[in-house]
Amino acid sequence: MSYSARLRRLKELGLPGRAIADLLGVSESTVSRLLRDEGRAERFFRKEERQKVLLALEADPQGLLRRWLFARTKESLRRRYPWIPEDDLEALVLTWLRRRAPGLFS
């Protein structure tokens, strides 16, 4: 299966393009181009570390999505409320995510 097809399958599973982009360390527009252009995707995934990220995404897309959402939400709340202690911040993040994405964080 081509790399573009593998990325398309991840999108079909519900993984947002933004999550794929962040995990690969590229922009969303790069992910869009990789989805459309087989040759570009083949060249992009020549690097072994990018192949490892793709394999991890394919192995556990929901788990990676949970970790990605947790990290992004935590960073956002940390910037917004810098005075909240780390332990309290993690509890706040979990509470917030359980309300926003109950299927992922039950």
From TrEMBL:
The keyword DNA-binding applies. It comes from the Bacteria. GO terms for molecular function: DNA binding. Pfam families: HTH_23. InterPro entries: Lambda_DNA-bd_dom_sf (IPR010982). Keywords: DNA-binding. This is LacI family DNA-binding transcriptional regulator.
